[in-house]
Design goal:
Radius of gyration: 22 Å
CATH class of the largest domain: Alpha Beta
Helix content: 40-55%
């Protein structure tokens, strides 16, 4: 099958959607399909061979953050040229309600279109001023995928029609075979956290409170933290005598993230809300770490109701402290949780997830009578 995938966000800046697209593309290629990915990126950027750069992106405030996207006449011409050359059996766009290459690709499409929705947010000020455009996009989408129940629910309630729930995948082998960081986890116990520790809903304050309490009683206990943020701000909330036992890695590559997760006895996800899936949990599961997580609905679903990870009442620092003490003192329970998680996470392995995506592709192709993309855009106007 010839598959065209479109990223709305720039490959010059790492992100969850971009990582999802790369892993999906490689899984599909591994299954014998021909894949081309179109993404905003500089022409001289170091990209995988299957990624076609669509030019430099511009920052756009979106969903409480800043997305780097490409939009406009020049981007439209590039999209049409790519579609004409690819003659894809199916076009797979991500976040098509964003003003981006994804939206342009849907509007230029002449064949089956599959759309994946990663977030529950489908409205913004920019899109509110373009309702007619949104309706055109919705009408041209043949089949929809939502990566979580929350995202699927939003599609049903606000866009009409349904969506197939297919979770984010994880490259299990990459995490399972990663080498731990030198000297980790050590004999005194190691806790791990990955994320934006300054963002309240990530719950790092709960973990910090638990760590300080436990570290007073456990001289060898250490904490490994990775993610964006200022080192000084992280250490400001930790007593001076305990700071040497906290290591901050900052932003890490995908390879180093896997090593980080392989370096802890317990991975802690103390999030207080706003999570629609819990990608980091599947990565920690693949790495073989025991998990202690807030009892959020999204986390409970990923952790198989608590079989693949220990849950504590959301927002309860005392309960987290007690749970971590129990896990640190009970290597057999940690091993049992890790073993169960290795079994559960196989359902999220990318080859498995990719086969489910292929089923949606087949349905979309059948719904359009097997029509492929034509060559209407093969001869762009001079200057584009």
């Amino acid at each position: 099958m010839r598959i065209g995938i479109v990223s709305p966000y720039s490959f010059d800046v790492p992100g969850g959607v971009q990582n999802h697209i790369v892993d999906l593309a490689e899984a599909l290629i591994g299954l014998g399909h021909e894949v081309s990915v179109l993404a905003p990126a500089d022409e001289d950027a170091a990209l995988p061979p299957y990624v076609v750069p669509a030019g430099r992106a511009l920052p756009l405030p979106y969903n409480g953050s800043v997305a780097r996207i490409a939009f406009g006449p020049v981007s439209t011409a590039r999209v049409r040229r790519w579609l004409a050359r690819g003659r894809f059996d199916v076009l797979h766009v991500h976040e098509p309600m964003t003003l981006s290459l994804s939206m342009l690709a849907v509007l230029s499409a002449r064949g089956p279109v599959v759309a994946t929705f990663h977030t529950a947010m489908i409205r913004s000020r920019a899109l509110s001023a373009a309702q007619g455009l949104l309706q055109l996009v919705v009408e041209k989408i043949t089949a929809r995928i939502a990566v979580s129940e929350l995202a699927r629910k939003v599609q049903v309630e606000h866009l009409g029609g349904g969506a197939v729930e297919i979770p984010n995948g994880v490259a299990v082998a990459k995490f399972a075979t990663a080498e731990p960081l030198p000297g980790w986890p050590g004999e005194g116990g190691a806790l791990g956290f990955l994320g934006r520790f300054t963002e309240p809903r990530k719950g790092f304050e709960l973990l910090r409170t638990a760590f300080v309490t436990l570290a007073r009683e456990r001289p060898g206990l250490r904490l490994l933290v990775a993610g964006p943020g200022d080192r000084d701000e992280l250490y400001d909330g930790i007593p001076a005598d305990l700071r040497p036992r906290v290591e901050f890695l900052g932003l890490v590559s995908e390879a180093d993230k896997a090593r980080m997760l392989r370096s802890v006895d317990v991975y802690v996800a103390p999030n207080t809300g706003g999570e629609s899936f819990g990608m980091i949990l599947t990565e920690a599961m693949a790495a073989g770490a025991a998990i202690a997580a807030s009892d959020l609905d999204a986390f409970r679903r990923v952790l198989d109701g608590g079989r693949a990870g220990a849950l504590f009442p959301t927002g309860d620092a005392a309960a987290l402290t007690t749970l971590l003490a129990e896990l640190l003192d009970d290597p057999d329970r940690r091993s049992e949780l890790a073993q169960c998680s290795r079994t559960v996470v196989t359902a999220f392995d990318w080859p498995v997830v990719a086969k489910r995506v292929l089923e949606v592709y087949t349905t979309a192709i059948e719904a359009t009578d097997g029509r492929v993309f034509d060559d209407e855009w093969a001869e762009p106007r001079p200057g584009t």
